Amino acid sequence: MFTGLIETTGTVLSLNPGEGATRLVIAAPALSNRWHTGDSIAVNGVCLTAIPLSEPAHFAADLADETLARTNLGGLAPGATVNLELPTPAGSPLGGHVVQGHVDATGSLVSILPLHNNLATTDWRLTVEIPEHLSSQIISQGSITINGISLTVARLDLPRIEIAIIPHTYRATNLHTLKPGALVNIETDVLAKYAAAQRAASQQNWLTSAYLTANGY
Fold it and tell me: The pTM is what?
């Protein structure tokens, strides 16, 4: 499990398709020697299995076709900056929200705009267009994960959402590297997923034989 509090960023070294999985190699000096073979690492919010390399500042991860289809990892180019987070140990404080690292889909970055003239201290307004099927899982002031970052939805204007970004988040993550049109990974709040699933099930199942009998049909 993750919390969406980005520990550091890494740099993509290579993305190499193979006969099976595609191998992603990342330089992450700040996380050197902090993982072992098979450990989980969230890369842009995607839970991946780390494969250490001979260089301790580097690690690899194999990407399945499902991961490539559902996330933005397949479009990464060498030199791209990615957000990184190690799992949260049991019993640790949850500074963000519960993040599974299971990306639902990608959205499109519409804009990320400063709200004040001083770019060193300004906060920012992030606007993302989301896929329609995620709309029922997002509420105003609810939690959402964008590229692995735990964020709060400030405004809904579906299919677009707006999010307030503080200066630290803008600088410490890869948000400052993104341009309009960039694909971003979206994971909705797991509680919202269950609520939406239960609501859909209740709407589908209300017309039961017991209901019909009780109402004289």
Answer: 0.89
The conformation of residue 121, written as its DSSP 8-state character, comes to T
* 180: CATH: 2.40.30.20
DSSP track, 158-171: TTEEEEEE-HHHHH
Structure-token pair, residue 73: 């990892």
Are residue 137 and residue 67 in the same domain, yes or no?
no
pLDDT at 198: 76
List, in sequence order, every residue forming a beta bridge with 85; answer none if it has no partner. Answer: 42
Give alpha helix (H) positions in 128-208.
167-172, 190-205
* Sign of the four-CA dihedral 50, 52, 55, 60: negative
Q: Specify the number of domains making up the chain.
A: 2
Q: What distances in angstroms separate CA 196 from CA 134, 141, 170, 192, 201, one per listed residue?
A: 10, 17, 31, 6, 9
Cα distance between residue 95 and residue 206, in whole Å: 39
**What is the distance between the alpha carbons of residues 97 and 83, in angstroms, rounded to a whole number?**
16
Q: Residues 8-20, buried b or exposed e (16+ Cβ, 10 A)? A: ebbebbebeeeee
Q: Give per-residue pLDDT as tens, 86-118.
A: 998 777 777 889 999 999 999 999 999 999 999
Same domain? For 155 and 109 the reply is: yes
Same domain, 13 and 45: yes
Judge whether 213 lies within some domain: no
On the CB side of 131, CA atoms within 13 Å amount to 15
